[in-house]
């Protein structure tokens, strides 16, 4: 079911406030271009806008959610809401022409019509030119929403006929809340939300057995570094390198290690609400009491330097061996 304006506002407060005000004042544009990275809520916002556009029982901007229009949109079969998505690799001219044909017909539910073009950057040149004419002569009670992850690929003439709304990367706190709402364990939600600002990727990551095991190995390394120092190098050879075999996975491992040391700084600066390894709070609090802030900061910087060297194609095993020695000395 579509989220409400209040629920979506934590993800895109500026966009939702602007649209909400426009609905309340009856000043909606005839065409919008939602642009931003994957997983920032563009399509969800477009569907919610369509509900508000058609709902006759809404309160301010909020659709009622129970009328026939709202229910039909939730089930994906509203006759006056048309969604165009790529047919294969592109959106073709015949898809836009078919859409135009639909708009010559009288609305089945009301006089209003709403269309969405998802991944609008994938329109062929002919499709884009067909749409341009459509945008130049908007029908009364007609609204369009185009969504794109690559706004630079949209014709300037199309952009100029739309109100462009940029969607920002999602804040980690919002992703974390959404993951917990979906039943993800709090400590897994906290870690996944730090790894990406894409909600879809965070959901997939938090449910991935590999990610859960990666987190466990990082905790083992941290314990070896702080409690069983003689075992840290052995762990690098026997567990770390086999489990993180390529650069992408090695970087994820270093990120998870970095989060542990950042948690120590969060505790020392009284910002426990930012903790990522919340299931290790008691252990981290003890370590934070025993270690100076400067020393922890130096360890954070050494992990960041290891990440930089990894990107410069340094030998991963030698890099991790050196990092372990540095963290132990620190």
TrEMBL record:
Residues 246-328 form the DNA polymerase III delta subunit C-terminal domain. It comes from the Bacteria. One of its GO terms (biological process) is DNA-templated DNA replication. Pfam families: DNA_pol3_delta2, DNApol3-delta_C. It is an enzyme of class 2 (transferase). It catalyses: DNA(n) + a 2'-deoxyribonucleoside 5'-triphosphate = DNA(n+1) + diphosphate. The keyword Hydrolase does not apply. Its EC number is 2.7.7.7. Keywords: DNA replication, DNA-directed DNA polymerase, Nucleotidyltransferase, Transferase. GO terms for cellular component: DNA polymerase III complex. GO terms for molecular function: 3'-5' exonuclease activity; DNA binding; DNA-directed DNA polymerase activity. This is DNA polymerase III subunit delta'. It comes from Metabacillus mangrovi. The gene is holB.
